[in-house]
Fold each of these.
Amino acid sequence: MAGRKTFLIIDANSVIHRAFHALPELTDKLGEPAQAVYGFALAFLHIAKELAPDYIAACFDTKKPTFRHKEFAGYKAQRPATPASLVVQFPKVMELLKGFGVKTFVLEGFEADDLIATVAKKAGEASGEIEICVLTGDYDSLQLVNGMVRVYLVTHGVKNAVIYDSKTVNEKFGVGPDQIAAFKALAGDPSDNIPGAPGIGKKTAADLLKQYGNIETIYRALESQEFKGSDKLKETLVASKKKVMAFENLTRLVDDAPIDFDLAGCEFGGLRGEAPRQALEGFGFVSLAKRLSGAEEKCVTRSLF
């Protein structure tokens, strides 16, 4: 939308993980692991040039458990331990972002997704005339999609990212963005080890939410004998009520994390100048530093937002 400023919010952990697993082993000029840093830099330069954002923020996870781990011991329990060669690269990406002049957010007890949701909400409150683009590889952020927020979902590289608006979310899942948490609570989410209700798959979950709107309404219909469905489905839902409601709480993003947010503090000065170049050259990424010329030019893909 012409005339509106753009705010890019980066799910740093997601992009770093994808870069690490997509690229071959690479070391920086000190001989330390750097493929995740290099891949993140590639993704950042591409998206910064394409969107020419006025504001940027990058959100990170911490090692500390969140309320989700405390409420459900199995939360993300299936995920393997992060390789040591990747762990050492997170601070390096933060260092790189500092050189780029990008504001970063990290807070114990909250996931990067929660910080993204909070930043998006606060940015919208600070300026109603703003377009928010979330760069992530995590489907959870689709909950945030609305008239102001689009999600740039990376599954096969940033250049092939799929832009999700409300229509695209509905086409993919059969539900709206505001129903994603309920959808995952019912159908499950293997990526977070959320089992969902036994025997309820994606189609059934979508059909239920199309008919009743949300989980609370589904259970009100069951209690009032107005639920339309097979006896088996009724039995499953009744038996799973406590778990389904708990799972919805786990999958819903928190948008009021206690962060110190200031829209002006997230202003992005572009990629020209000494600091961004030195940040890249500091890791030995000389070829990337040479790409900075013209990186602030606007791109026609801004019209997609």
Amino acid sequence: MAALRNGRLPLATALVGLLGGLTAAGGAAATASSAPQRSTPRAGVPASPRLGDLLTYDYDIARSGDDPADPAIAGLSAAARWDRHLDGGVYAEPLLDAGSAYVATENDTLYALNARSGALRWSLHLGTAVSGSVLHSTPTAGCGDIAPLGITGTPAIDPANNELFVVGEVELGGHANWRYIRHELFAVSLTSHRVLWKRRVDPPGGNNPNRYYIGAEQQRSALTVANGHLYVELGGLYGDCGQYHGFVVALPESGSGALQSYQVASAREGAIWATSGATVAPGGDLYVATGNGASSSATDFDEGNSVIALSPSLSRLGVWAPANWVQLNDDDWDLGSGGPVQIPGTSRLFVAGKPASNGSVGYLLDEQHLGGVGGPAFTGALCASGGVYGAPAVDPTAAGVLVFAPCGSGTTAVRVAGASFHLAWRQSSGAANGPPILAGGLVFALDWNGGALYAMSPTSGRVVLSRPTDALEHFATPAVGDSMLLVPTQSGVEGFRALG
């Protein structure tokens, strides 16, 4: 292949087409020399400034996991104040807005609950979730660990228009047939509690054996609202079966206009599946991490196990991959099991994924100069065992920013200073392997293997309290707001009272 120049391939793989009925990509490819420059600042969903709000995954589109408004938390109720059973498992982080908790299930239902009591305010069933038998009948797609498959990625709220956006996997018209599987994006009014519009977000060319099968794609990452657009990531099913690609899809927030998509260059795979979705820089550019690709040749770089920078219109701006990306591809050591996060006040990105032959490591990158394959990056030891699954959180107020990583062995913190980092602490007891958040002066994270919630000191990792929970889905992320801590579970959601 042609050499990388400043982290760019000679041909961009951004695809542009109209939604519905298209079978081939449109739009022109851009050369490296004509690739878009860094964008100027644009508006996105802000960090939640109001007490009790959580409007997008991890509080902001930088995916910091830092609750900026809620007061100090001294403790939690001894047991869940309420436990609401819903019609399916919950993988998405609950959202909080104006006293309501919004929870989405794998049965394609959106619930609005009273955040303090758990009482049902309203619900909206958005479609027929895809059964395991229909999903597995898709050609080449005989794997997956979620059934039925409905809403997996965390929705997002636009407070300016009082609208919630959510992506569900549906069987069109109730047809129990793989040919009718679709990914649909719904805009829901939080005033009228009705669907304002819906759009299919499958990229062009689906159900073509030379391209990809819709049923082999899974939408696990959080939805992103930024730059006047909605961004959706797609990856594969658990087990990496089937003909699928990693995609980023975008459409205007109004729901009208062209669908744009970026396809990871790999012949197949290259999933974008971390819970956090895209990380958005202050200027509006997006960063995503990918899983293993199909290439086993160092001369055929395919964007597997990479961090990719995209413009708001999904043109590729840069890429980085570790020098051992081929081995990561071959051994299914996804870098993209954890999404990249920004280090506040710097141009640095932190990213970490599954453990590899060199152990569990994290990487610190320069987001303005990703550097291509084997480009400059600080590499440091991270997890005691296991890897990172889901988004880290960051503490921008600590001297030399702390990054809290969801390691399989338990929450682990590293301290970033300049262009490097070093281990700060490991969780003092227990093994909270879920994505952490920082709220009320404590780090909260879930053990989705053991069904437990932990709260830790952000400076030492000492566990200050723990609570048993109902059984949890993989990569479950808690939410804090409105004096409550919410836990998404396999049966619904639990609410613990936060004590001041």
Amino acid sequence: MFRSIVLVALASAGLFCADGARATTARTFVSISGSDANTAVNCAPTTPCRTFAAALGVTSSGGEIVVLSSGGYGPVTIGQSVSITAPDGIYAGISVAAGAGITVATAGVSVALKGLTINGTGGTYGIYMTNGSALTVVNCVIAGFGNSAAADAGIYVKAGIEARLINVLVRDNFNGIYLDGGAVSTIAQSQVLGNLGTGIVVANTNTGGSSVTIAYLSDTLVNGNAAGVTASGSSSTATGYAYASNVVASGNTDSGFEATANGTLVAGNCVAMNNGQYGLLNSGGVIDSAGNNTASGNGLGAVSGITATGGISY
């Protein structure tokens, strides 16, 4: 009887449900001076938690975790819809020695990340998403992930989700951004720099069925990678499409824009400059110039394997 009275009192204070399960709240907080023991009081602004993982446990599905002070907050696996937000002027870091910084693998969840810095010191992926409904990444930095595995990347998405990557800096990973498995993505106002593999991969490695990975790229710089932007597919029905507008692919070791087997790349108002091989290369797929493209100063030539070269300035 005493236990029941205590639980009812805690429930009335908003700390526990009457059945003993912990209550959640729409907005929780983390701070460098916080404590994960503060999950008992739902990581309130006056009693924040220390890590994202702890705060997530008392955040309602669809709720928000807010960073109050600069510091490191640890890797986290996200199994519910949530936003994680660091306001302007606050450094919110995740350092990863192995595995992924942020993992999302739960059906139906929508995750939004704003203002985070995710650094790899041996990790494989900065953001790793293999299930869900949507991923939004705004004003984030992802650096230092992967080694030589083909799909290691700063941002890796292999799921039929909607991904929105806006004003992100993805640098010094193996691949920069790797999109696969039917994802439909928007990449805008971003910088993809100095990655050892490909800056932006739009692929479909599914071997059965019919699915299309699509990326809409705009106002983005892809510089200093091994290759710039590539589109590929595993079959004629499992394909990758990249649509690039106002994208600059420059200083990459290989080609700026490339379509390989079963991939399609459409470029308009783009610049391919000073790449080691070609500005635009078709090596088994389709490249379409939508007009007003510039290919200049590339090591082996402006274009290769393209049957229609209209709208390209050399």
